[in-house]
Batch of 2 targets.
Target 1
Amino acid sequence: MLHLDWILVLVGAWLGLGLIGLLVLRNTAFVARVLFPAGGAVAIALAAVALAALFDVPETAVLVVGLPDLPFHLRLDGLSAFFLLVIGAAGAGISIFAAGYFRHGEGTPPGLLCLEYHVFLASMAMVLLADDAYAFMVMWETMALSSFFLVTANHRVPSIRQAGFLYLLVAHVGAIAILLCFGVLQANTGDYTFANMRAQSLSPLWASAAFLLATFGFGAKAGIVPLHVWLPEAHPAAPSPVSALMSGVMLKTAIYGVLRVGFDLLSVQIWWWGVLLLSLGLITALFGVTFSAVQTDMKRLLAYSSIENIGLLFVGIGLGVLFKAYGMDSLSALALTAALYHVISHAFFKSLLFLGTGSVLHATGERSLGKLGGLMRRMPWVGWLVLVGVLASSGLPPLSGFVAEWLLLQSFLFTTELPDTFLNMLIPVIAAAIALVAALAGYAMVKFFGVIFLGQPREPKLAEARDASRLERAGLVWLASGCVLLGLFPVPIITVIDRVTHLLIGAGIADTVRRNGWILLAPTALDRASYSPVIFLVVVCVAVLLSIWLVRRFYHGRLRFAPPWDCGFPAQTARMQDTAEGFGQPIRQIFEPVFRMQRELPSPFDDKPVYKVIIEDHFWHWLYLPIAHATELFARVVGRLQQGRIAIYLLYSFVTLIVLLLVVKS
Amino acid sequence: MTFSGLVSQLLEIVLALAFAPLLTGWVNQWRAWLQNRSAPGLLQPYRLLHKLFNKDSVVAETASPIFRIAPYIVFACMALVCGIAPTLSTDLPLAPAADAIALVGLFALARVFISLAAMDIGTSFGTLGARREMLVGFLAEPALLMVLFSASLITQSTSLANIVESLAHAPFAIYPSLAVAGVAFTFVSLAENARIPVDNPATHLELTMIHEALILEYSGRHLALIEWAASLKLFAYSCIGLALFFPWGIANADTPLVMILAVPVLVAKLAVGGMLLALIETINAKMRLFRVPEFLATAFLLAVIALLVHVLLGA
């Protein structure tokens, strides 16, 4: 059997598990203990097959389903295999966690949830396999719809229904753009297979049109500013495993789409596409990270952080396009490797963080950062594992986020070799902004971890918080070890990514990287730049252990426990710690013009002073509400046609007939 | 990896560990003299460390293990920083393991851990310190990175050892871009080492303290390690600054004689640097906290301008 057949079997297994869920609609125990772990096992198998397929030649198949004479064309090449690997590897952890998570009904019966969840996974896998526009759009829509139902799992809450609707709306606006993009790509041949699109050579004008449509369509799915508004609403509204799946995995299908269209279906790249992606990515990253630092809801904070990461991915891809357009293939490979590394790294750490919030939510029933605190002592497992994700997400060595960031910054250092002087000037400034984004991400993550897990509990009920269940822990451990391994062993991972960059641009950095062995990562030349996470970790660990041992050896190890000192202030309570608002205050002040703030400040004479601050983004008021109002206005004008009397409608038909006759006559 | 490389590597770390507090003592002494006070002895920081190590550590009841492990991690990070920063020689076996970007990452790692430890106890001062430290950090970090980027662009390498080696043999005496970057680096070093005008290491006043608020709950050996790490950080920053902007006299040949010659040069450079630092701290006033972002934004912009100067002039 070919790899592709195995993958179809596994996708079929997911669908089968979903259907079984439908049979045992309300049997929570069976769904949780059998179906979700089985889904996790399928995901691991999928990752293994995808990894094997990555090192093999592309395979194609024709699946006779759907409309007559219009079968699904499928193709498994390096690019799809890589993203399948991401789905499988991250999905496995999420499924295992979900097995422990869906303990009681979330509004939707567990069996139905199981169906939606597995259809979602299966459709994501099929999007990656699709080799014609028809199959792609069907799977893309299935993905959007199944995730819509998952987002609205808790559909009795009005705000969740609203978030779901917004998500559906933006998803469909994006889907229209993707459909139009395929329309342009097939170049009037009427053949919508990707093979035909690859064979076409479009004029620069039409190629740019296709590229812009793809950027818009996939950007809407990925959450590129200004199409991001659905993301901070929909991701927090969903149950945590679903948020993890959406943020960690689904956003990557949009990245896949950009890569597929930009590098595979379009044969030639134009330099300003790269600049466009770079600037969109930069704006998105800056926007996401500033908003993430001022959030007071833990899941919204993570959702904005996802927007930031998607921005960084677009920056990497943009740099890749730019280098490719100027024929600097190996540098383009470096930038794309950075982006793809970030794809897999983000899949792991963001899933981990979202799942961590899920455990916190279950243990405390609280999503608001202002009411959490001190959970490190109540939930040590979740606390330590989330800390790994936090460090990876802040881009700190030696974890996974740093490798991607390091590679991206390395590729920026080569931009001075671009032949265009203007770009030479512009791009170092972008590198500076990226450095700022990375540092701000650290700020947001320290806030996220510090406010939830450290300090004293801000509410009495937190004292009863229980640590995550065994299956939940297993899922978290899987993802956390992914973050660590991806951070420590970049060379094998780059060997994997190399297959993708070879497919997309015909160049890769693995040969250079492998020359120095697995321990040292040197993407270009050894004396130019190198980084070795293993040595880094070993030295830090040895230094830690040595200093502990030496201190004990030469001095005593006496320790006393006492109440916190706090400069001798006796009446210290948990309410005196920084809240999430307090911790974000410097960011709010420095980046004030970016936010739309409404503040309610208490007067000094209030008996019960209340402080409230609402932060919204300007795009909502500048872009979306005007469009919504215009649509309503237009609908009202059109609505005048509806009179509700049959005579009027007959009159309409009569007038139409007359007009048509006149047209035919003349 | 050569034998002499290994020796110079070990020597560097050991020398840094041993003499970093001396630099702190030197700066304190000069500051006292410049402010017309009678100065503590040069060895005062060692006495302080010895005293603190001998005391019991008092840990708050509400502390989690993060609080207790953080001083060791911070100390280890700073020791590694001293290991990769070319102070005496550029022939360092550890240098390929972490380049300039990883150096910034190391500082960030230490900062994140100390901030988390400060939030761990759950006191008002701790969280205040963590917030302010992260505020300083998120502006200083990219500025430092951009300074190092300008040097990397000139030397076509991000490895600190290679940067310093090529700068030491550069055809230019002074690169215009590095001159601008040097100013930015000075700003960043002042902020990162909790010095006036950003922070005052000698105060426990709520309105002004940043670094002291972070470590308020620490005592005994934990505090000793943090103080030592702070000395190491100052030492490392001074050495990196000297190596980048005044790289003459660093040994790059692997002969012991050159290494021995490099020591007095380094000592002389550090002595002058320490005096200048004390001077800056004396003639400046502490800024209001919300002027600090402006100060650091200036540093950041200067660093970016340095990059642009390099791109424009090719130097």
Target 2
Amino acid sequence: MGITERLIEDAGLRRGVSLLTPEKIEKTIVAVLQGETGARLKTYAETCMRCGMCAEACHFALSHPGDPSYTPAGKVHQTMSVLLDKKGRVDPDFIYGMAQLAYTECNLCRRCVHLCPIGIDTAYIMSTVRRICHKLGCTPQYMQDTAHSHASTFNQMWVKDDEWTDSLMWQEDEAREEFPGLRIPLDKEGADIYYSVIAPEPKFRTQLIYQAAAIMHMAGVDWTMPAQTGWDNSDMCMFSGDFEVMGRLKRQHFESAQKLKVKRIVMGECGHAFRSVYDVGNRWLGWRWHPVPVIHAVEFYWELIQEGKIKLAKKFPGPVTIQDPCNIVRGRGLQQKLREVTRFLVEGDIIEMHPNMEHNFCCAAGGGVINCGPPFKNVRVEGNAVKAEQLKATGVKTIITPCHNCHGGLHDIIHHHKLGMDLKFLSDIIYECMEKPEA
Amino acid sequence: MRRILPLLILAALTLVAAQALAQESITKLAPEAFGKFQRPPALFAHDKHNEKAKLDECVVCHHGGADGKQDKSASTEGTPCADCHKVKPAGKATGLQRAYHKQCIDCHRAKGKGPLACGQCHKR
Amino acid sequence: MNAAYEFVTGPLAWIAWGIFLLGSAWRLISMYQLAKKKDASSWAFLDLGFSLRSIVNWLIPFNALGWRKNPLLTVTTFAFHVCLVAVPVFLMAHVALWTEFFGLSYATLPDNVADIMTLVVLAACLVFAGRRLTQKDVAYITTGKDWLALAIVALPFLTGFLAYHQVFDYQIMLIAHIVAGEIMLAAIPFTRLSHMVFAAFTRAYMGSEFGGVRHARDW
């Protein structure tokens, strides 16, 4: 049992590993362990009592009953524990397996924190393993492509500067037919809200920008989107281990908001980007908190509803279920607000999945796993059979989830298990149900 | 088990033999003041002990004193220890258990002879 | 035999306690310095209130998700840890030694209760060992260090139980018991048992992150 028995061919990993020498491996590992880790890793490695309680936490482990190599401690046992025991003296083949495991069999979802009495953060350990893989040049090809895009364009999808503003103006143009007078204000100084999205939105989910603009317009929000780089809040470099580029991305995002002297940043319905902006990037840049306050779309919609700014023409027909995105639930405690917003929008019951809220199961796409691309698609789809069972047990047709990764992950799970369920962003439902001007 | 068995038999025999030999002359330190005993009372063969320890003066053990201070000039033989040393002592006075332990162990330690550890006196 | 007894209750005890106390202090201080130097972005978020919130919630049996998902281990580990600490600290014979050597005296456990609690510790060790041998997910991650920690903890209780009941040669058993206890003390700062020193801090850190930054429960 273990990663060596389930290796998957990936061009990026193969090429990276082919260039390694034992000397380079040892030097790099020692440099990361000594230079970038400290008391956290040391205490985690030393005090993990190997009790195995975390086995119950992980959707990968629960979806592979009887195979302990998928448990959180089992994954650390195959990766970081070996690096520490052997002081970095491992061979290139080991790095291949370690990279595949760290990038594709752990979503960094942090559910295991809820099952560890000592409070060991396995996600941190796996991130550190990924950091080492990145420094060794052994990253999955698809993920590295997005990281390259980030490094060259400041966005994840190779969107060129003119394409970005083009897309916004195109959506504005389209929306003005339905909402006369609607604007997507570019670079508006001193706006209340700076709205940032992930690059897949302009690239292939432009309707989300349309919907956001419609909601802002009807709610009378003073908002803006930046015309220059910084507009993409996503961050695959955080997940690939390229923290240097991560830092550049986050600085660009915050600075573009600061230049516009906005009051707050509202981030679209994405989980990983929120983790990057709210919890990770700021720390890398040495900021305890954010230079511009940051809130997630769920909280923003919740506020608009509290203020009576979202007016519905009808309610969305339920029942629905909610997929809690790890990064805004375990990462920001938005589970109650998500339900309050849903209750406001939906006619009928919310059929909960169990476990849910802070104890939810990840979609198995997050943490950069879906970005490792087609070679690893089955790892996450088959590795999340428990989610398919959870979804099926609700018996509902509609799943609401305010996260791009959850959409991607659940889409594949629904398709693979022929569940016939629909996925909705909150903005899909708000847009569908809100009052619109008479046409 | 095969290896331990002879040891077990030996241990059992030793226990029986020791008890049979000691049966006649032993005295236990088992004052009623303690109430129910948690451990077996300490074995103490008064005459044999004093003979072996060459103790002629009673006051060596049967001392006087008050408020936690011993008076080695006042002999108190015939007075039960528990009369002065209460199980739950007030103020600076020495408690009964402590008095026994101190009396026996301190002397054994000073002379380099006699039992020191719990089970050597509190034998089962 | 008296000489051996005096040695293990005298110089060796001082050495064991010295290693335990100074070693623990050294480990804590050096870990603190390392954290300040290398983990500033974590250290900055430590918060006393959220630390205690997390610790308290994990100290309640079956409160945290982890406890609820592992009932056998929960019962075992709570019983184990309570007895593991209470028996050595409050055993009448141990308190008598504190009195003998330092004039210290405090509440004690009745011997028959302590006896049962010792058996609880030993039974728990058997459960732990059984899990390591038979439960796949635990066996997979079990290392020599884990067996060592288990043995170090089980031995003082096993020998203590045998010495108390005066099975086998009492004096040898008692000396073995004392030495085993001293090995355990000295091993605390340098083996897996160091979670005694560090667990409160790893828990506190997680509690602080989840409380102060992520606004979510971590139990």
